[in-house]
Amino acid sequence: MLTRLTPLFFAGLASAAAVAHRSVDVVSGQTSTGASTVQFTAASSGFDGPKVTNLNSTTFDLWYFDVLAYDLSASVTLSFYTADPGALFPQAADVGSADYAEVFVTTPDGDLWVAVVPADSLTIVTSGDGSSGALAGGNATWAGSSDMSQYTVTINAPDQGITGSLTITTVAPAHFPCAAASSMAGQSYELAPGLGWANAIPDANGSVDFMLDGTPLSFQGSGYHDKNWGSKPWDTLLNSWYWGHARLGTYSLVWFDFIDPDGVEGSSIYLSENNVIVASSCAGNLAVRPVDGDATFPPTTQTGLPNEFSITADIPGQGTLELQTSQSGILVEVPGLSTRWAGQISGTLGSQSLTGIALYEQFTFVS
Ligand SMILES: *[C@@H]1O[C@H](CO)[C@@H](O)[C@H](O)[C@H]1NC(C)=O
Ligand SMILES: *[C@@H]1O[C@H](CO)[C@@H](O)[C@H](O)[C@H]1NC(C)=O
Ligand SMILES: *[C@@H]1O[C@H](CO)[C@@H](O)[C@H](O)[C@H]1NC(C)=O
């Protein structure tokens, strides 16, 4: 259950412009039996704050972070969930609480480290557009600035071999599924019916300092932060999706290409250059397609994995974006559900050549 402790607290400084709306929410790990209230229309602030009030067994709200090493040698992906397993998908972690953090770390040695940190509650402080969260007991936290320019995430799971922190500093402005995050009030957070998405940090300079069973892992890379939430179980909201983000020189790219429960494709494309949005739209004719391996489209829980993806989109004023991945490896694979890759990505934007790195995934929910 989500309890609003302080609806509005004026962290008032000298001028009205410095006043940031602040609220504190505590999400219990035991979900409510009543109906949730799920927010899909933006208010004037609170972009990265909680969107589900009175969390129940079929609604979910989560915060996601990642950093991919510039040389592709290592990665961290980390999520804070408020969700019962039945609100996500059949293979979701069941830790006896809706509140938990889950972290995946890949190392230069090719090892995969996983830790799941449960807690009785998650406290989220929303200040301006940014949010900060702490699992009860403090074994996993995130702390964001009110303008969403910087986030630090910590994890303390020594019994599972993982402790450490990461910091991401934005290089790409926030966006809604189909629009930039400027002039927020009234904008839609709905990527697909019932599925919310707020991308606070589409790309960042990231710095990771972890200890893995006493061995340090430190690296710099491209970082990212978003949140998803839903009014129904996640696996009923979409049939499949392709999502990813990339750093291509001075450009930052985020894509979402999905098949809805009626079999209809929907998409969102975001491109910024030097911290200025070039495109943020659902009308960019984005097409993400599997290439090589099992290139069945759309993918299902029964199909195999492609080796690569092609990404094409229309970027107004810049021409056609045409990219293809070149995978360096699979970061995480849950057969029949999801696979996350890292790799190089290259191609063209109009007449310009682009090359960089990407972290991307495929989810399949139907057979
Ligand atoms: C949870 O809340 C949603 C949204 O209000 C509602 O549609 C759903 O029926 C609720 N689920 C349960 C199990 O009460
Ligand atoms: C935090 O992590 C430590 C080490 O794993 C553990 O002993 C402790 O019980 C955890 N605290 C909570 C509140 O879960
Ligand atoms: C991010 O890193 C790039 C490359 O090192 C650097 O040019 C840029 O100033 C950094 N931006 C921020 C906001 O730290």
UniProtKB/TrEMBL annotation:
Keyword Membrane: no
Domain AsqO/PenF-like C-terminal per the UniProt entry, residue ranges: 237-363
Top-level taxon of origin: Eukaryota
UniProt xrefs under SUPFAM superfamilies: AttH-like
Signal peptide: 1-16
Swiss-Prot/TrEMBL keywords: Signal
Ranges where the Diels-Alderase N-terminal domain occurs: 50-229
Cross-referenced InterPro entries: AsqO/PenF-like_C, DA_N
Protein name: AttH domain-containing protein
The species this protein was found in: Phlebiopsis gigantea (strain 11061_1 CR5-6)
Organismal lineage: Eukaryota, Fungi, Dikarya, Basidiomycota, Agaricomycotina
